[in-house]
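Forwarding these from the shared drive since the link keeps breaking.
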Amino acid sequence: MLQEGGLKAFAGGNLGEPLSRLALNPEGYDVAVVELSSYQLESIVDAQFDVACWLNLMPDHLERYESVDAYAAAKRRLLERRRIGGVAVLNAKDSVCADAGIRLGGATRWFSRLPKSDLAGPRGACGQEDGSIIRTVKDETEVYRPTSAALIGLHGLENAAAAIECARHLDVSPEAVQRGLQSFQGLAHRLECVSEAGGVTWYNDSKATNPAAVRTALDAMSGPVVLILGGKDKGAPWDDVLAAEVELRKVLLVGAAADLLAPMFLDAERVGTIDAAVVRAAELAEAGDAVLLSPGCASYDQFNNFEERGDAFKKAVLALSESEEST
């Protein structure tokens, strides 16, 4: 959206490029879009933000924090570092985000994946049943249509609504925002469609390193799923995954968390590695199914990071596709 609006934007931090690259060339950009982890937020001192966007709070990193409340307190520092004249962009349907915004006050814009919201309705962007997003400022409305195939599921609509609010605060025109919604290509390792072959769609969601992110991915699926789970467990509860209303054709378990996860799922199968999981998933999946790598765990038991894990999955899937094409 920012690029469509003619701005030279840096994207990095906990996502993509390291912040050190921005520090070496701060004059080379008009705006910096920075993703900050709770770890990074713990130690910020002088940082100030024109836009402080908090998408949601999911239980995570409970091997580091004594409680979800302690984790939320670290995340809340984002809002406390707003610049004077800055704005908070918050999820109206997330109780922790909403409570923080109301308590801290200041300029706030809201977003919601749902059409009706007491907070986002009059002062934010709301997803609609037809897939559009309506943004309201005072008595005027703007209508946006996220048409990119990469924006799948209700969480995609929610993320688009948040991005709209951020971009509009930075004076990106509605026309440029709409172009951004159309041209968005998605991000690697985040429900990334790797392959479609034989009626089976393969998704790389290696960035899903907690159970709540797995649930979000499952909710975006429209048919039966072969789910690949596992890695280094971080102590968060798995209740959301177990409650997902999706047909799990099979759960394939990899990594150190396999023994923990096996009793939770009927007919779960330990396969050990990503390569073995891809081979087994190909045997199990039927036309109309999705094979979803959404581990719900950190990658450090077998990989250096989630990117390396996702790349290993993509390499195995593409090798399998090439092998099938040659036979």
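-- next protein --
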Amino acid sequence: TIDGIEVVRIAWRGSTRYPVAPDVLRHIGDADLVHVHAIDFFFDFLALTRIFHRKKMIATTHGGFFHTQRFAAIKKIWFQTLTRFSASRYEAVIGCSQSDLETFRAIAPRRTHVIENGTDTSKFAGAASVEPRKRMVTIGRFSVNKRLERLIDTLGELCRRDPAWQLDIVGVPSDLSVADLELLIAERGLSGHVMLRAGLSNAEIRTLLGRASIFASASEYEGFGLVAIEAMSAGLLPVLEGNAAYRALAGRHGAIRISDFSNPATAATAIESAHAALVADPGLRERLIGEAESYSWQGAAERYRAWYDAIIGSGSRNAGR
């Protein structure tokens, strides 16, 4: 159990990107509502077998399967065929960002709605350095779509202008290993300026954020931009690649900088501008923390509960299961 909630793990086979686990049908018999997270095997399988299990269902998209351009043509065909059919078997498809809303409305216009991801804004609340520092941090999986090599190149440009700049890369190995990133850093002669931090606990990350003032992300794709909200809650000023999710976020928060990390000089200038803004406006850090509060999980949970009630009716014995 986790916090008193039963968690059942079931066997699977095949790829981690599409794990096949038909035993799921054995575990939904007493549910009034099945909530499927992510667009993978469970989303398709439970849609295809609904004629047998007859459960009411809701799904949350979590970015779909468009995080990278790999197999783009196959993904588009899959999305327009099987995903389109599967979505038609759900009472509601909930996009966790405006970009997901637009994507899934193309195949399920009447069923698709948006509830943006909730964020644990207390986890890193107020953790960033009180005094502006020439140190930035990025947090996330070490995956190809995060374009960490562009972020490292940007740090190299910053160091050519002022060797005081430093970057902490925090996360866990994925498409890229620790060795892959260490090689990228060494090849650019930045071993003293770029620090790789793999597998840190939240407490260790919080301590690390206390030495930084800027959050940077060169990611080509984000489903929502959750990590940027967490950075704001710490008091870090985000400088972000202009993907759809980050542009939507910047549209709501004027302090966020959008830049093009494929051009290290342009991105470096944006980061210098962000640091200058923190120096010139001592209240900016606190405003970032305050703005992040609007993304707390409480609000998201209430909006999901409203959908549960609308689908299965208030007072059902297993509401929220």
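Residues 13 and 19 are 6 Å apart (CA to CA). The chain is about 40% helix and 15% strand.

- D.
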